[in-house]
Amino acid sequence: MISVEQALALLKNNIPQKKEVQILLTEVHQHILSKDVNSPINMPPFRQSAMDGFALHIYDSLTYKIIGEIKAGDAHKIELKAGEAVRIFTGAAVPDSANAVMQIEKAAVKNDDLILTESVKESTNIRPIGEQIKVNEKALLKGTKLNAAAIGFLAGLGITTVSVYKKPTVGILITGNELVKPGNILKHGKIYESNAIMLQTALTETGTKNINTYEVNDDFINTKNSIEKAIHENDILLISGGISVGDYDFVKAALEELQVETLFYKVNQKPGKPLFAGKINDKLVFALPGNPAASLTCYYIYVQPLLKTLFGETEANKPITQKKLTEELIVKNTRSQFLKAVFTDDEVTISTHQNSSMLNTFAVANCLVFVPEGDYHLAKNSKVDIYPI
């Protein structure tokens, strides 16, 4: 059995190589750029009107002759002489011969004459070519997470594909004869299966897009075959249950027969002691405890940071620190603990019902407090490390 710190270090030293992939802009939401993106065009690509109004060839009078109109998207060009103007709309191309745009609120129209209420300076209300970005300038840097604004920005530059870090395909394999799907009649000795949808939701919240789910009963051959199939079809496999030492826990033996290399098995922590992590052919396998709260705790502490690292995020393993306990905490444990809790501002309150089979407290928690093993007393306002969830 190893410590939490040793387990995290082993995972950090065995993270698979991040993979890059070129994908369509329509599919890149929440992906992270693996290369800088340079602008292929100037933006705007032409002198652009910032207002609805009139484009002018300025001269020494407040009265201009209106000779035409330019709407956004019009491709025709109009040549203005001094004292001439064209009606123009926001986003439209300003004629090369125009040197200002007067907004419509500061002008009056009488027949074909435009009468300004005040003089206007050159370049007023004209967006110059490349004002936002010039051709070949860096539009977005490697490591940028692509949110709605970033995707809109790239689309506005005419970009249709970008290079991003590939999000791994994750499999969830559920084991256990006692499990029944919600919606079915619950017979004596059975419980509803919740870990699949719980882990699937947690993966989706983390940003994982490709998730496969599998089920297997407590049988060695079936367990082995199901694990082998799931490893083949996924980059990372999460196995729920069957990793302990009971007579019907076949996961560890199946992993050994499939020659999955053990990184660690059993961590000196509560909940989640029987956690397994292994690798095979640049793929990772986690066997999580079957108890829901223990399974979710192990996901947040070990799996989620790994996934974020593969996604291209930085400092994925770093907990938020310096939160003060709202109440004293007496620690008398031979194992480190991850306690469900709620933090606000600079304080954190430990929740009740820490049992590894209970999710009701987890449902309202927003962090896990890490409490190292030992026999000691944490007074109120003591600072503890927290992992947001």
Automatic annotation (TrEMBL):
Cofactor needs: Mg(2+)
EC number: 2.10.1.1
Gene3D superfamilies xrefs: MoaB/Mog-like domain, MoeA, C-terminal, domain IV, Molybdopterin biosynthesis moea protein, domain 2, Molybdopterin biosynthesis moea protein, domain 3
Keyword Nucleus: no
Domain called MoaB/Mog: residue spans: 171-309
Keyword Nucleotidyltransferase: no
Pathway, per record: Cofactor biosynthesis; molybdopterin biosynthesis
Reactions mediated catalytically: adenylyl-molybdopterin + molybdate = Mo-molybdopterin + AMP + H(+)
Keywords tagged on the record: Magnesium, Metal-binding, Molybdenum, Molybdenum cofactor biosynthesis, Transferase
Source organism superkingdom: Bacteria
Function: Catalyzes the insertion of molybdate into adenylated molybdopterin with the concomitant release of AMP.
Family, as annotated: Belongs to the MoeA family.
PANTHER family assigned to the protein according to its UniProt record, in alphabetical order: GEPHYRIN, MOLYBDOPTERIN BIOSYNTHESIS PROTEIN
Protein name listed in UniProt: Molybdopterin molybdenumtransferase
Source lineage: Bacteria, Pseudomonadati, Bacteroidota, Sphingobacteriia, Sphingobacteriales
